[in-house]
Write a structure and sequence with these properties.
The protein is mostly helical and 157 residues long. Helices cover 74% and strands 0% of the residues. The protein is elongated and about 55 Å long. It starts with a helix and ends in a 17-residue tail after the last helix. Residues 149-157 have low confidence and may be disordered.
Length: 157
């Protein structure tokens, strides 16, 4: 029984040392690893946005006269590089409560301003579509025929 207990204790000690090594290797990666993951995610999101816009473009079957409006629309709703930057949680946690709320309000105002720009671009583009194209657009953007959980072709970034 003592040998079993001793073997278990040695095994646990070896496992904990291995876990400690793995944790320290991950800790060394630190913010650089998080930045690399975020960069990779942003690249993936940009690729998906481009893919969705290409699919929508094909479904709409735009005329040559509508292409300029399409280009302007896509340029207006394309997420800016770094648009998904997450705030430094430690810095925010260190702020006094009023500053944290002010920071949140500023972020909300920025988001609203962005969405208002998207809406203006959407209305301008939508105005040049035929009724059939409007139906296709409605079915494929911001939920549409896919329901509210499927954010579809636009603005989910």
């Amino acid at each position: 029984m003592k040998t079993l207990r001793k073997t278990l204790l040695i095994g646990l000690a070896v496992l904990s040392m291995g876990a400690g090594t793995a944790l320290s290797a991950h800790a060394d990666e630190g913010r650089h690893g998080a930045a690399a993951r975020q960069e990779k995610m942003q690249a993936h999101m940009a690729e998906m946005f481009t893919h969705r816009m290409a699919m929508l473009h094909d479904k709409l079957k735009l005329s040559a006269a509508q292409e300029g409006a399409w280009t302007t629309y896509v340029a207006a709703i394309t997420p800016a590089a770094g648009a998904m930057q997450h705030p430094d949680r430690a810095a925010i946690a260190a702020m006094p409560a009023p500053d944290r709320l002010e920071h949140a309000l500023t972020a909300t105002r920025t988001h609203i301003t962005t969405m208002e720009g998207h809406l203006a671009a959407l209305k301008t583009f939508y105005a040049v579509l035929t009724p059939e194209q409007k139906k296709v657009f409605d079915d494929n953007v911001m939920g549409g025929a896919h329901g509210p959980s499927h954010m579809g072709m636009m603005m989910h970034h």
